[in-house]
Every structure is written in structure tokens, then in C-alpha cells.
Specification:
The complex is a heterodimer of chains A (327) and B (298).
Chain A (H helix, E strand, L loop, with lengths): L2 H9 L29 H30 L2 E3 L5 E3 L3 H8 L1 H18 L1 H12 L7 H13 L2 H12 L5 H8 L14 H25 L4 H9 L4 H12 L1 H16 L3 H6 L13 H11 L3 H25 L8
Antiparallel strand pairs in A: 1-2
Helix pairs in contact in A: 2-15, 3-15, 4-9, 4-12, 5-9, 6-9, 9-12, 12-15, 14-15
Chain B lengths: L1 H7 L1 H8 L11 H29 L3 H4 L14 H9 L2 H32 L5 H13 L3 H13 L6 H5 L6 H13 L3 H8 L4 H12 L1 H17 L2 H6 L8 H11 L4 H21 L1 H13 L2
Helix pairs in contact in B: 1-2, 3-16, 5-16, 6-10, 6-13, 7-10, 10-13, 11-12, 13-17, 15-16
Chain lengths: 327, 298
């Protein structure tokens, strides 16, 4: 890139400035054009983005393209890749194991979404004026977010243990006889889902708390003058005004949950009788692609997953017009 | 939000701007009791697993499997903590985890702040296109990269090395995005003034902007540190030698070897998770700020 080419591109009015010079406080993008080329701006721009751009290009973008090409090949046991067209995709879509993994993943995602309303409720309680101990509560609720997933998984395995687990002891107080939650195909994914709710609630709560703190206090004051109680204020002011945050949290929760792996791998694992009814799509991908060396098949699995994520996210964006209020 | 408010009433707008926001009216005493009761019940649910982890780590094996469960050990079995070092190359894995975490964090803070600054503050041909490309990486599930990343590491002869653990995590689209948001918030007059003083873009980045973006870098650094420390899938894929694993993968294999020795497993879990819990407690405000800004100002 020579100085001359930069100069030509710069001189073109790439972005018409909507405001006269001088009144652009805080808006780097609409900075007034001073006419002359700022020496070396483009050079430094490219240089400063170079490390990340090269890193992402070689370790993310290229791998994504390569994985896409993998998805049309079958991997031999001695490392050769044969082009087999859409065979992998056909096989994935006809594979009952993939179908079950998809159902498990949706169940897990649905469970994890329960953390969203819970987090809204908790954030609203913490947001009350003059409440003591907000910092302590926030720290405690947030603790699982920063804890090693392996540590979380191991302690919950112990809690869920059918014979000496705390969960069954607690249920026993109410006369409920609990099962071995994680070894049981009909309960495992729900048990894992509860851990997922438990570990994501603090993160979501922090996002909601930030959203709620942007609501003008006058809204609440006016509402209380009109005689609206705390519950009514919550449903009529807080809930509608944080819908942009709710939307954002729902979207990232769905995206992240559809990619669930850690908890299933750590809490159930390949030797468990319950794995068929607990394995998620990414767990299946890991088993096929990394453990069993069926890279082509695994690549097709992640592209089907990508498609599902895209469709669900798009659907959420479409549907948001019905319930999200932007201020 | 502030804009709509000021349209409706000048008072509300002023309040929103001056930051007097977001607090519902004072609760009555009885209301306060209800609120605390709910929050405390919730906090107990959050804390019980951690409490149980700690108690179990100090029990004998027999105590850990007692029916009905025993809350406290008769005598604290500190020996469980030293057993972790015998069961795993724990010291080595700890060092591996630290190196991986420090490399990723330092790399991201440096590279993402540089790229974030360029995207927010400099104009160059193709800026928008490249930024959209970065954003697309942000939206793709990371499993899409795994198979190919594994082959790249294999091709470079890096399988079962610490370099392989750290490398992909050094570059981040999310970090770039987060830093860009921080740089966009800084007033434009700053670089104008520095330019008039004859500073080149790099000097503006290094001398003027970086010191002001300290909070952003701290937030990114803490988030990156915690995510790196806790990362499981990539280490499992790229390193199968226990000597080269980080703690996340190491604990997963320890679970296989000592299927039911819960006291030792819990002791290992505590040792492996304490560093990030400590980091969080110390830098809680920065971390929360980072998360909040990643969500709200997107």
C-alpha cells in the first residue's frame, strides 16, 4: 500500500459528515475531514489490526472454510480424505443418534432459559434503593460463573449421587425417594440443565442490573405517586424497559446453550448408561471428530448446528418486534 | 433511553443525564424483609455446592459417602490436598494453566486494544469490511474451527505443547469489539489535540488512548483470564499428555482415575478454582463493568 493509493481513497468523500466541523464531540466516526491526508493513518491502521487480523484469518476464518470442505469428505483410517459430496449431511440427518442429541440440546437450552426470568427477578430485588449487602449478594450469585467447570461438575455429581448425595437426602425430608439423577437416561439432561441454570444466573443478573440502572428514577417516582405498588412497578416499568437487555440475554443464552459441551462431558461422560439421552450436539461432534476420527461426519454435524443457530437467532430477531421496546 | 425521556419531560431527561436513575422507590420495612428473605434463600442455593465441596475435601472417604450425609468431618483431613499432588501432575498442570492464561491475556489485551483503537479511531480503506469480517468470527460457534485448528497444530508439530494450548486464544474478535466500544466512548478532541501536537497514530494510541482505556483493558484482561483458565474443549482436543494439560482437562481425567474418591477430587477442584475466584473477588467491579458494557452498548 503506497502513500498515493491511500491519498486517493482518502480524498473521496467516503462518509458524508452530517454535522458541521466542531460539533462532533464524542463521535470519532464523524470526525470532520480536514481535507489533507493524515500522514500514515492508513499505514498505522493496518499495522495495528495486523496481529489480530492475521491470527483470526489463519486460526478462525481459514479453519471455518476448511471445516466446510471437510464436511464433503469421508476420512479414511489412514488419514486420507475422499470427496463424497453431501453423503455426510444425509447421514447426519438420518442418524437417530444425532436426532436424539438435537432433542437433548434443545431440552438443555430450554432449561437454561429458565435462568433468564430468575435473573430478572433477582436483579430487580437487588436494584431496590437503599438495599444493604448488594455487593455480597452479587458476589455470591456470580461465584459459579468464574468457577472451573470441572470443579462445578464434580461437586454436582456428588450432590446428585443416588446413594449419598445431598439432593436425595433433601428430597427425603419431604418423603421423596430420589434416583441416581445422572445415571438415569430420563433425568440426566434435566439434572444437568439445573446446574446450567445455577451457573448462568449470576452472569445474566449482572447484565439485567446494568439495564435496570439505566431506567430513570422518575418513572418509579411517578408510578408510586400514582399509587402503584412494587409488583405493579416491576411489571409495568422494569420489565418493559429492560426488554432490549432481555432480548440480548435470550439470544446469547440460546447461542451458548446450543453449543453446550463441558457439563455433559464432565458429569455424564462416555461410559454412562445415560449418555444417549444426555449427549448434546457438540458432545457428539467431539466423540465423532476427535475421538473416533470421523472428521468429515463431525464437520457436517457442526455445520448443521451452525444452520440451526442461525435460524433460531434470525427467528428471535424477527420475533423481537413484537415484544422488545427500544427507548 | 435518555432521548425519549427528555422528549417527554425535561425533568426526567435531566435526571437521566445526571445519572439519577434506576432505583425503584424505598421499600417499607416489611417489604425489605421479604426481599432479603428471597435473596438469602437464593444465595444459600448458590453457596451450598461450594460449602459442600469444602466440607467434602476435608472428610475421610467413609465420611464422604455416609448415609445420611454428614456435614462436618470428625477431623479435618488436610492430607486430601497433598493427595491431589500424588494423583495428578498437579504442579505441572498448574504451571501450564498459568502460562496459557497469561499468554492469552497479555496477547489479547495488547492486540485487541491495538485493533480496537484502529477500528474506532483511524480511517483506512476497507475498515468497515474488515470489521464485519471480525464480527462474523464473533458469531460463529468455536467448534467450527476445532478440526482444522487441530490439523494446523499437527502440521506445525505443536500437538501436546503449551504453545498449542495458548495460541488460538491469543486472538479475539470479542476482545477487539469490546475495546473498540471503549475507544469510541473517548472524546474526539483528544486525538485532534494530539495530532496538532504532531503525534502520529501510534503515539496517539500508545501515549494518549491506552492510559485512558485502562478500565477497558482491565475488564478484557480479567474476562480473558477467567475464560482461558476454565477452557476445556480446546485443551482436550489438542493435548492428551497429562504433563501438558491445563487443570481443567487434568481434573476431568482425575475424575476417571479416582471415580469415587470424592474428598481428593474436591480438594483438587478447590485448588484449581481458587485463583480465578480470588481474581474475581479482587477485580469484581472491573469485570462486572466489562460484562455490562459488552451487553448494553453492543
Amino acid at each position: 500500500m503506497t502513500e498515493q493509493t491511500i491519498a486517493t481513497t482518502e480524498r473521496r468523500p467516503a462518509r458524508p459528515s452530517p454535522r458541521p466541523s466542531g460539533s462532533t464531540a464524542g463521535r470519532a466516526r464523524t470526525r470532520p475531514k480536514t481535507g489533507n491526508l493524515r500522514k500514515g493513518e492508513a499505514f498505522w491502521g493496518y499495522l495495528l489490526i495486523a496481529p489480530t487480523a492475521i491470527g483470526l484469518l489463519t486460526l478462525s476464518i481459514w479453519p471455518a472454510i476448511q471445516t466446510f470442505s471437510f464436511s464433503f469428505t469421508t476420512w479414511g483410517s489412514f488419514g486420507g480424505h475422499t470427496f463424497t459430496g453431501l453423503d455426510n449431511y444425509v447421514a447426519v440427518l438420518q442418524d437417530p443418534e444425532f436426532g436424539q442429541a438435537l432433542i437433548n440440546t434443545f431440552l438443555f437450552t430450554g432449561m437454561t432459559l429458565i435462568s433468564v426470568p430468575l435473573a430478572i427477578g433477582l436483579a430487580a430485588l437487588l436494584n431496590r434503593r437503599g438495599l444493604r449487602g448488594v455487593g455480597v449478594y452479587r458476589t455470591l450469585y456470580f461465584l459459579p460463573v468464574v468457577t472451573l467447570p470441572a470443579a462445578i461438575a464434580l461437586v454436582w455429581k456428588l450432590l446428585y449421587n443416588g446413594d449419598f448425595g445431598l439432593v436425595n437426602w433433601f428430597l427425603g425430608i419431604f418423603g421423596v425417594h430420589g434416583v441416581s439423577w445422572l445415571a438415569n437416561g430420563s433425568t440426566a439432561i434435566y439434572a444437568i440443565g439445573i446446574v446450567s441454570i445455577w451457573s448462568s444466573i449470576g452472569y445474566n443478573m449482572v447484565l439485567f442490573l446494568a439495564g435496570m440502572q439505566a431506567i430513570p428514577a422518575e418513572y418509579y417516582e411517578a408510578a408510586s405517586i400514582d399509587g402503584a405498588g412494587p409488583l405493579r412497578q416491576f411489571f409495568r416499568i422494569t420489565v418493559p424497559l429492560i426488554t432490549p437487555t432481555t432480548f440480548f440475554v435470550a439470544v446469547i443464552t440460546v447461542i451458548n446453550s446450543l453449543q453446550a459441551f463441558d457439563l455433559v462431558y464432565l458429569m455424564v461422560g462416555p461410559t454412562s448408561p445415560a449418555i444417549q439421552n444426555a449427549e448434546t450436539v457438540v458432545y457428539l461432534f467431539y466423540q465423532k471428530g476427535i475421538i473416533q476420527g470421523q472428521g468429515g461426519y463431525a464437520a457436517a454435524i457442526v455445520f448443521v448446528l451452525l444452520l440451526i443457530i442461525l435460524v433460531l437467532t434470525l427467528f428471535q430477531f424477527r420475533f423481537q418486534k413484537r415484544w422488545v421496546h427500544y427507548g | 433511553m435518555a432521548d425519549t425521556a427528555s422528549l417527554r419531560s425535561p425533568r426526567a431527561g435531566r435526571a437521566a443525564r445526571s445519572g439519577r436513575t434506576g432505583r425503584p422507590a424505598q421499600t417499607s420495612r416489611s417489604g425489605s424483609v421479604v426481599v432479603h428473605t428471597i435473596l438469602i434463600v437464593g444465595a444459600v442455593v448458590m453457596v451450598v455446592p461450594f460449602f459442600w465441596e469444602l466440607m467434602t475435601s476435608l472428610k475421610t472417604f467413609a465420611e464422604s459417602t455416609a448415609v445420611p450425609p454428614k456435614v462436618f468431618p470428625a477431623q479435618a483431613q488436610w492430607v486430601n490436598f497433598s493427595s491431589v499432588f500424588a494423583a495428578l501432575p498437579f504442579g505441572t498442570q498448574f504451571v501450564n494453566t498459568v502460562i496459557m492464561t497469561v499468554a492469552r491475556t497479555a496477547g489479547q489485551v495488547l492486540f485487541c486494544s491495538a485493533a480496537g483503537f484502529a477500528f474506532a479511531r483511524l480511517r483506512f480503506p476497507g475498515r468497515e469490511v474488515i470489521f464485519v469480517l471480525f464480527l462474523s468470527v464473533l458469531m460463529i460457534p468455536s467448534q467450527l474451527f476445532l478440526l482444522s485448528q487441530y490439523e494446523i497444530m499437527q502440521g506445525l508439530g505443536l500437538l501436546n505443547t503449551i504453545t498449542a494450548l495458548a495460541l488460538p486464544g491469543v486472538f479475539s474478535a470479542f476482545g477487539t469489539f469490546l475495546m473498540r466500544q471503549f475507544f469510541l466512548q473517548l472524546p474526539a478532541e483528544l486525538d485532534e489535540a494530539a495530532r496538532l501536537d504532531g503525534a502520529n497514530p501510534f503515539q496517539i494510541y500508545w501515549r494518549v488512548m491506552l492510559p485512558l482505556a485502562r478500565n477497558g483493558m482491565l475488564a478484557l484482561g480479567i474476562l480473558t483470564a477467567i475464560w482461558s483458565w476454565n477452557d476445556l474443549l480446546w485443551p482436550l482436543v489438542v493435548n492428551n499428555d497429562p504433563e501438558k494439560m491445563p487443570l481443567s482437562a487434568g481434573l476431568a481425567t482425575l475424575q476417571g482415575q479416582f471415580l469415587t474418591n470424592y474428598p481428593v477430587l474436591m480438594a483438587g477442584s478447590i485448588l484449581a478454582s481458587v485463583p480465578m475466584i480470588a481474581l474475581f473477588v479482587i477485580f469484581q467491579r472491573n469485570m462486572v463493568e466489562g460484562i455490562a458494557s459488552s451487553g448494553i452498548k453492543g
